[in-house]
Amino acid sequence: MDNEKRMSTGKALKAFFMLALSAPVFSRMFGRLTALKYPRWFARTAIRKFIKIYQIETTELEKPVDEYPSLSAFFVRRLKQKARPVDKEPASIVSPVDGLAMTCGTLTDSLKALQIKGRSYKLEKLVPEGTDLSSYKGGYFVQLYLSPRDYHRIHFPFTATVSRASYLKGRLLPVNPFSLSHFKNVFPENERIILELEHKGQKALMALVGALNVGRIGLSFSDFETNRGRRKDCEIPLSRNHGEKGTELGWFMMGSTVVLFFPENTFVPQIQPGATVRVGQQIGKWV
Question: Are residues 183 and 64 both part of a single domain?
Answer without folding.
Answer: no
